[in-house]
Amino acid sequence: MRQTQEPGSMKDNHQSRGSGSRSGSLGYRRQLLAVTCLAGSVLAAFATPARAAQPAKHHTPRHQTSSRNAPKAARTPSRAAAAPRVPHALDASAAETVSVTSSRRALNGGGGMMRVETAPHAVQTVTKEFIDMRAPTSTALDLIQNLPSLNVTTPDSSGMQGGQIQSRGLTDLDMGLLVDGAPAAAAKYLSENVDSENVESVSVTPGSSATDLPVMSAAGGVMNEETRTPSQKRGGLIDFSYGTNNLSREFLRLESGEIGHSGVRGYFSFSNTHARSWMGAGTNQRKHIDFGLQKDWHNGSNAKFFLSWNSADFVIDNYPTSDQFFRYKHTGLGYGRTDDRKSNNYWGNNNDHWNQIFISAPVHIVLPSHLSFDIHPYFSFGQGWDASPGGTTTDDAGVTRGLTNYFLQNEYRSVGTITKLNWEIDRHNTFSVGYWYENTQTIQSYPSSYQMADGNAPSPNWAAYQISAGDKQTAGYEIQSLFVHDTAKYFNDHLTVDAGFKFVMTNIWNKDYYGRQEANRTAPLPQLSIGYRINNHHQVYLNVEGDYRQPSAVDLGWLYTSVAIPKNQYSIKEELGYRYHDDYIVADVAFFNYNLTNRIVDQYVGMNSYKPFNIGSQQMRGFDVMVAGRPIHGFSPYASVEYLHASQDSNVFDPYLNTMLHSKGTQAVMAPHVIANFGLTYTYKGFFANGTVHYTGPQSVSIAGDQRIPGYVTDTLSMGYHFKPFMFAQSPTFRLNFTNLTGSIVRTGAMGAVYSAKDPSTVHSGNLAPYTGYGNSFMVSPRFSMTGTISTAF
User: Fold this and answer.
1) Which residue stretches does the UniProt record annotate as biased composition, category Low complexity (predicted)?
2) According to the model, what pLDDT value does residue 366 have?
3) Helices and strands (H, E) in the chain, number of each type
């Protein structure tokens, strides 16, 4: 029946989610069993009497956790001698009662844009002090965009979508993206994870991945969002935001405080966001729930539970080709979706509809005989679809009707757990042995339907509009991994040695209409980190490790079973660093060298969809510098810079041009030589302000090196005032947040890699008929925006 169809099938145009992908289910019965087991373990952890975790009667166990492997509560160095010098106050209210308090701001520099670190590898962190100055619509990407190792690109200013990361010549698809140490949504969908009001800190380890983290893609390091610890007191937080592009957002969090005398405390929050697309027509909606519980025992055992639910409907942006971008820059003619309901490119026919649930439940139990046990189950499940124009057709009545193509994920399911037994052999050594299991699968199809009379895309399951149910496909993997780790500290904890080995075994499968394929893969991952604290101000460290990236479930789902499953990407990384801090300054310098084989990159094929391909070997080397000042007369400066020399070490065959590209020795794709940042925070009584400037140098966006984008500058400004408590309002605050103050029209990054500037693709632009464009497509910095927020704790 279809008479006119745009090039390419929906199998070539699907959208990836999850920690690099979205995946499906093993069936409702297995889902129910997984969720039941997960809930049972959490409830057991919160309800189990502390007797099972009581220390032996004749001694007090000493539990020590490596700062690179531990969750937030364990990342504070366990011995005072190893900790940075932090001002504190002692208050003796009775002969046998001593309380010790300290300000977490004493660990911060640059107004929370940098934190004092002690781990024997690079760590770059933004803290709550900085997060609280930014707009509540901020995603983790907005918060980390001034770290030295990262170039972050975001498609909108309302926080509805995420974006992309470039890190030391790699991308977010090469990174482990976590919430509380559990795999979460991909960078393009980071807003699904957690609201910014419930984020305590965001840390990036650009050159390393701990042995006990559940990551299958860590060549580019790890980004981890730490959620808030529930308050000991009953109360809450409320805020309202309004801004450019008809942005409106409401947020409410309720804190239970300690429930009775159980030691259990928790919070529940809900947010609702609405905004227009900044480019072209369309509206976006997001509803989000966060729920957290925590239980602490006196002997050091603890359990934490975090659940989030996200429902989103947003317009899938059109990312412009070079020609579209320059036409917009020079003439003002946009490239977004149209508001013409008769057009196949109507914004309601280009939308993402998705529901997601995420659970993380780490439990730490202190045992007798210097032992402790950690178990961390996690679960995520999603369901939804992406709609895109499918051309037009003429029905039996002779009426021309628009078509809609879909990427439908009937179910996405990822479930896993990490278990670890720790033994403190003596005051110098803590040894850990553990096991990681994960099962991830996607069940997806590619149906097509008639466009509705009002121009919107119907549900792909509505029989009244459906033309074809489309091909169905199942793909996924099962991971089993064993790891060992030892942390040794000597010379009064001045010397720290972390050594570990992780062996990953994976079964990968892909099943479609044509057949089934599978592969068994292994990855040996050695790690060695050495840190030496010269004195309370100076530290040097060395880190060496191997990391890998395997194809995600959706990467596999794109491939027909006639195509071989791509080989795992493998990297060997070395890092040498130096840190300094005192009462006035915090500084960190890190030199790095990476060597990659079987480099996997992803080509953007439209509608938020990608396909992977291999470009051989790649080498990256350079250095990062971070410097931040402590507050001086209210001013806290921050600066960072990265120099990167990344080169392609292989020639690559271009299937579009049927020729070998002489890419060996050229600048690696999406790897700018220079990234620089500057920030300044000012506080005076209740007033606060923060300004940032970011620079990214020129970069290649094609393997052939024949397409590039120039360097660019972006900026932000935040300011506000904390008023004195009034009635129930404990912290009434008003703040304004601005982005792109100069209104710059710049390309902030490529949507993916392409072979050359001559690669063809199908282009949609407003009411124009679909046509063939060439080369890469880009994210463009959203226009000037302002968001105003009023908030208070109560």
Assistant:
1) 16-25, 70-103
2) 96
3) 5, 47
Distance, CA of 526 to CA of 571 (rounded, Å): 11
- For the chain, how many residues are written? 794
**Of 698, 694, 714, the residue nearest 783 (C-alpha):** 714
Structure tokens at 179: 């919430």
Tokens of 62: 């000493």
**For residue 176, what are its two tokens?**
């482990």
Q: Indicate if the pLDDT at residue 397 is higher than 50.
A: yes
According to the 3-state scheme, what is the secondary structure of 126-192?
EEHHHHCCCCCCCCHHHHHCCCCCEEEECCCCCCCCCCEEEECCEEHHHCEEEECCEECCCHHHHHH
| Contact indicator for 445, 471 with CB cutoff of 8 Å | yes
Q: Say which amino acid occupies 19.
A: S
> Phi, psi at residue 144, to the nearest 5°?
-105, 10
**Which residues make Cβ contacts (< 8 Å) with residue 84, sequence separation at least 6?**
107, 116, 118, 536, 581
CA dist 488 and 499 (Å) reads 9
Q: Sign of dihedral through CA atoms 156, 157, 160, 161?
A: positive
- Asked if 550 and 477 touch (Cβ cutoff 8 Å), the reply is yes
pTM of the model: 0.85
Asked whether the beta carbons of 789 and 735 are under 8 A apart, the reply is yes
Q: Tell me, what amino acid is at 709?
A: I
Please name which of 736, 722, 741, 724 lies closest in space to residue 782, comparing C-alpha atoms. Answer: 741
Say how far apart CA 220 and CA 238 lie, in whole Å: 36
Host H or E run for residue 503:
strand 495-512
What's the rounded Cα separation, in Å, for the pair 275 and 259?
A: 38
Is residue 615 classed exposed, middle or buried when 0-12, 13-18 and 19+ CB atoms within 10 A define those classes? buried
Segment 313-329, tens digit of pLDDT = 999 988 999 999 999 99
Q: Which tens digit of pLDDT belongs to each residue from 238-259? A: 999 999 999 999 999 999 999 9
How far apart are alpha carbons 386 and 22 in whole angstroms?
12
Distance separating alpha carbons of residues 67 and 430, to the nearest angstrom:
12
Cβ atoms of residues 577 and 531 within 8 Å: no
